[in-house]
Amino acid sequence: MAIQIANRRPIRVRPWVQIMMGATLLGTLLGVTLRAGAEELLKNPYTGNQQAIQEGHQLFLSTGCYSCHGHEATGGVGPSLTGESWIYKPTDETLFRTIHNGREGTNMAGWSDTLSSDEIWKIIAFIRSIYKGSPSKIVW
Q: How far apart are CA 61 and CA 70, in angstroms?
């Protein structure tokens, strides 16, 4: 493909550049941003909020999260949510997306049809409040 700029010689564009330009345009049209090493975009607005933590605990129990993660979130069928050993980096964004969308290839189902974004954030606030790992490993 060649691009013609007014009164100039055509610029030849390599196929891989065309693909990248198309992908960038498509991403822009769909509202998707490509991030390489960027800071996470989602942060929990309820971190440290005691009322939200209590509501998150109630949601954890009423939604049935305990059936896989245990009543105290120490694990069962699903992993413990209280320690410092996580398969995925446990940022606010990662936890939110995992609860919202589920985790492919695991028993973790998405809860976006059942829980609002606020409810998911409150569950995450509860999970943060029961962390028993080293403070140096906190990534949120």
A: 9
